[in-house]
Amino acid sequence: MSEITPSQTVGPFFAYGLAPHSRCDWKPSDIYDWKETAGANLVTPDISGTKIRIEGAVLDGDGMPINDAMIEIWQADAQGRYAHPADGRARPNTKFMGFGRSATDKNGVYSFDTVKPGSVSGPNGKAQAPHIVFCIFSRGMLRQIYTRLYFSDEASNANDPILTLVPADRRGTLVAHKEMRGDMPVYRFDIRVQGENETVFFDI
Amino acid sequence: MTLIFPKESLAVFPKHLSPDYRSTVKRSPSKPLIIVPHTLSELTGPVYGHNAVQEGDADLTKQHKGEPLGERIIVHGHVLDEDKRPVPDTLVEIWQANACGRYVHNVDQHPTPLDPNFTGAGRTITDKKGYYRFITVKPGAYPWGNHHNAWRPNHIHFSVFGHSFLSRLVTQMYFPGDPLFPFDPIFNSVTDEKSRQRMISTFDLENTIPDWALCFRFDIVLRGREATPQDTDKH
């Protein structure tokens, strides 16, 4: 049997350490200067690409908001490049990390400000449609669950090598729907952890 | 170095649904997870520079005007991959209750005092040998509402990144010999005995600092191994 260290739940009290300036209301006082290692705004001054906002609620098996979840996202930049040594291509957006973290608020809502990622390479050299990897932690989750966000305005979703492995009647749970809020495209992506219309999670 | 992340290694993890821990009942996926290959999107992951971590972030006893109450301890160890190679330059974050078993989070209403000199959050980046070290106070046990007379064993929460988004780990470090182990559904959600033991730190007399602080060692092994199996895996 593997000797990796087992996962345990993030519990209800992570916010003051991991996401101190996020949406959740954890503070016993306003005096707290713990800097964030990663927050919900991924946009950097040198960024190129389309700025977008991602918003959604995290819901439990009764459809009730999960107000103590932590959502982490990992994405490529607008050119489809990851800020990681395994992606050896030169990156024009040198300060863009592609990693974000948001805790949910009392309504179970998280949000991110970022740029729309480009297409990235996939298995057997086949391109993947633009997407963002989501990793969800919460009280009541003994281990993280992974999903992906795809964009409603991408025709390439139809040929995405991962999305096409998902039963057709469940693919819609992975597609975030676009609306315009002024000039800002906002993609709505609710995460239903359990039950009817349960979001597709990946065994990876 | 090309790493692979065999799913078999996850067999030691708790099941999503572990009903003895009641909150899992409505917060676990009920449909089968979809098996997909690992792509560049999973095999990459956030890489932290040192800018996010400041000098002193790893010493939880020095974040306020005075020293926190409680038993001062050193918690240290190595972050390793499945081949037991060090994972250097990776972010390790911790958070914990104070010595009384109280978190600063406003949802925690356990009737024991907050400590004005203790927040309970720390972080550091592993060095070239995968080594990390924190100074803190030993967290207290505390009650929770899972079942009648439920108490969590003393623990420190850990969050670690590693080489890819697949090696991401959130776990809890426990202390040796805790009498609450048999009664804790979170600890026991890991059903394999040897795997449970890997969540328990060891008392480290050698690195205890005389007249100052006890020391506990907690090594963390993340997903990820070289593609070529080692000989030791063949038997």
What does this protein structure show overall?
Chain A is built from 1 helix and 12 strands, in the order αββββββββββββ. Chain A is mainly beta and 204 residues long. Chain A has a single domain (15-24, 33-192), classed as Aromatic compound dioxygenase (Protocatechuate 3,4-Dioxygenase, subunit A, Sandwich). In chain A, a hairpin with a 6-residue loop joins β7 (131-138) and β8. The longest helix of chain A is centred in the first third of the chain and has 4 residues, at 15-18. The two termini of chain A are 18 Å apart. Chain B is mainly beta and 235 residues long. Chain B has one domain (3-12, 41-105, 114-228): Aromatic compound dioxygenase (Protocatechuate 3,4-Dioxygenase, subunit A). Chain B is globular. Classes of the chains: A mainly beta (204), B mainly beta (235). Chains A and B meet through α1, β5, β7, β8 and β12 of A and β2, α1, β4, β5 and β10 of B.
